[in-house]
């Protein structure tokens, strides 16, 4: 059978990885896909740079629309990124009846509903394994491997940049700004690192996983997004003394204790018990834990970025499409795991309704009755204390750090208690509040 023809819109790091891996492993890939997969066209504004990557093995054009317009091309791989031109081109490719592979998490988290509806209408596939956790086949696992299960929650380290920064802050005791600069120098963080460090990238990925796990539409606008730029080395140290590591987690959790059900969708720095496997995922690595009713807990670990790890996911999608493109669209794996008529509208809960435990650090006057006033406020809000740590005051110092770990409570209740604690004259600085998850 003749090879399936692929066009790459954009060829940079991931595109060149895809090109190289496809060429290197072509015999095995053909054996698995049932026919060859060939990149025959690539686009890049700087045509000369693209030629350096592909030589004369593929036609290089400056205008991506030339690729979409070519009737010979069966699959479009979108590697441009962002929600502007990439959205237009993906919709145009779908309208032209092409299958699409994309690594673009922002595009799917924000415009997924529109894109999947257009794809269904045209009977084409949109595959996106590379959009979440790079080389880890987490989309495949959630959508197909765990298809027998009712998924209860998932929690992932799904941004390598922030995990690298947190690992360095912990192991070297450095502050955030110093480590960020070092991460930029080493190429782990972009020159504009905002999307990574403020949790946006992780929230895009968590949004996509929540849709597949629970059969809800992608709703990035409802995700709670909090990054690590305000995190202090002091809190990493105190957390460690209490047996916890701080990780930026993307969490999606089904809640059946609220009337009509609800979904928590949140990204924030989180204390995790050090003995959990995921707490020991260090450097730029990614990992996702999934809790499901039949299989129990499963953990997926690997590289979340990079040329060949991401290419691994892109090519897996190319192979899937190659196998399935002649199948009746109704017999393919649904884009978001559930058949369109089986999707549901379980609401994403507002943050005030989220159930979690807390780490609090209070700078307090070191005098009689301070601790009791604070614990009284917590008790009045029915918030149970799990552990307390008070740093011994230095000689002559009249203030100290008080660290409190709580049991699970509702975030809204904690907000009220925090406001009251903050108003105490003996609380001398803004209270640091972090969330804690046992992931048991
Ligand atoms: N910038 C991402 C990260 C990789 O640091 O993990 C691509 O999503």
Entry summary:
The chain is of the alpha/beta class.
Radius of gyration: 24 Å
Structural class: alpha/beta
Domain unit count: 3
End-to-end span in angstroms? Answer: 50 Å
CATH class of the largest domain: Alpha Beta
What are the low-pLDDT stretches, counting only 5+ consecutive residues below 50? none
The assigned CATH architecture of the largest domain is: 3-Layer(aba) Sandwich
Protein name: Homoserine dehydrogenase
Pathway: Amino-acid biosynthesis; L-threonine biosynthesis; L-threonine from L-aspartate: step 3/5; Amino-acid biosynthesis; L-methionine biosynthesis via de novo pathway; L-homoserine from L-aspartate: step 3/3
GO molecular function: homoserine dehydrogenase activity
Family: Belongs to the homoserine dehydrogenase family.
Keywords, separated by commas or semicolons:
440 residues; alpha/beta; Rossmann fold; Dihydrodipicolinate Reductase, domain 2; Alpha-Beta Plaits; 3 domains; six-stranded parallel beta sheet; 15 helices; 17 strands; binds L-homoserine; homoserine dehydrogenase activity; EC 1.1.1.3; Homoserine dehydrogenase
Could you explain how this protein is built, in words?
By secondary structure, the chain is an alpha/beta fold. It has 3 domains: 4-137 and 307-342, NAD(P)-binding Rossmann-like Domain (Rossmann fold); 139-303, Dihydrodipicolinate Reductase, domain 2; 352-436, ACT domain (Alpha-Beta Plaits). Helix content is 37%, strand content 24%. The chain contains 15 helices and 17 strands. Strands 7, 8, 9, 10, 11, 12, 13, 14, 15, 16 and 17 form an 11-stranded mixed beta sheet that branches. The chain has a 6-stranded parallel beta sheet with strand order 3-2-1-4-5-6, with helices on both faces. The longest helix has 18 residues, at 105-122. The radius of gyration is 24 Å and the shape is elongated. The structure holds L-homoserine. The site of L-homoserine has 7 residues, from helix 8.
